[in-house]
Amino acid sequence: MMASRVLRSRPKAIFLNSARLDYDKKLDFSRLTSLTDLICNEVDMVNDESEIVDLVQNSQAEIVITKEMEVPAAAVAKFPDTVKLLCEAGTGYNNIPIDLARNRGIDVVNIPTYSTESVAHMVVTYIMSFGAAIFDQAKMLYDGNRTNFTIFQHPIYEIHGKTLGMVGGSGTIGTAVADVAIPLGMNILISSRAGRLPAGHKYENNPRVKVVPLDDLLRESDFVSINCPLNSQTRHSIGNREIRLMKPTAFLINTARGAIINEAELIACMKENVIAGAGLDTQETEPPADDSDIWKLPNVFLTPHIGWRRQETRQRLVDMTADNIEAYIKGQTANVVN
């Protein structure tokens, strides 16, 4: 049952951490401001529970918007009764207590597909960078080491003919990765608890796409990409055991959610050079703790969760958030996750 709405011309809304999205002031919020009386709290994150509650209460908001921000259950429990819609300006909603929100009559909505191509291209960027040792060569030049220009010393590989294994790769993003990887000549392995692709999937009968058990995927892949959602079943599902099944020449790539990997166990494996490298656009804690060894590992390459940050992708996100709010105003709430 959808939350009922008190009719008024423009509902009040607050974006609790708008700078997470519009950090460069290049996005157009005009649709959002035409639909709502919008307050933008121009910070990257609000971490204090009482501050979250104060912002929502003081704004008298009917609509609360967040981007990748932890919204504690204790804060939602104190939201005023005016709140009827909680918009996650993104895909993952593991940071929101959706059951409690439902019990309080608050619809939680997300945006499932705004960054499909952008995240898929991030996976492929890592693959091609690893294949040409781009990260290692850039670091050498930054350190003043020009040895590669006289005696080349890094193993580099053609992508054509290599195997890409995608954990949870039958979904929208995994399919978009395959859309790029197959024309590059890669073979695709997908792990799925169902043991097969969904009926009607575009690659259901493609001879270069196979569905295999996770252990087989890990053993056979040259690149392993994590593309599954974070939930109770997938949290820390890639750890010491799984990494040690991989080829010593293989690379692990995560553009999904950081906590799918047991980061402490990954760090231990990378210190032993169990695999060739890891590319992490997401980390278990973002950013990692200042004293985390993950910053220091020469075979682990970090990016600050940029898969969704391309300007066009962020503008699409703003527009699709407006779509969700407009649907709610019309009494046709869409993309409800609770």
Automatic annotation (TrEMBL):
GO molecular function, one term: NAD binding
Keyword Translocase annotated: no
Pfam families: 2-Hacid_dh (PF00389), 2-Hacid_dh_C (PF02826)
InterPro entries: D-iso_2-hydroxyacid_DH_PdxB (IPR050418), D-isomer_2_OHA_DH_cat_dom (IPR006139), D-isomer_DH_CS (IPR029753), D-isomer_DH_NAD-bd (IPR006140), NAD(P)-bd_dom_sf (IPR036291)
Full protein name: Glycerate dehydrogenase
Keywords on record: NAD, Oxidoreductase
Family as reported in the entry's similarity comment: Belongs to the D-isomer specific 2-hydroxyacid dehydrogenase family.
Entry keyword Cell membrane: no
Species annotation: Odontella aurita
D-isomer specific 2-hydroxyacid dehydrogenase NAD-binding domain ranges (all copies): 153-307
Domain D-isomer specific 2-hydroxyacid dehydrogenase catalytic: 46-338
PANTHER family given in the database record: D-ISOMER SPECIFIC 2-HYDROXYACID DEHYDROGENASE CATALYTIC DOMAIN-CONTAINING PROTEIN-RELATED, D-ISOMER SPECIFIC 2-HYDROXYACID DEHYDROGENASE FAMILY PROTEIN (AFU_ORTHOLOGUE AFUA_1G13630)
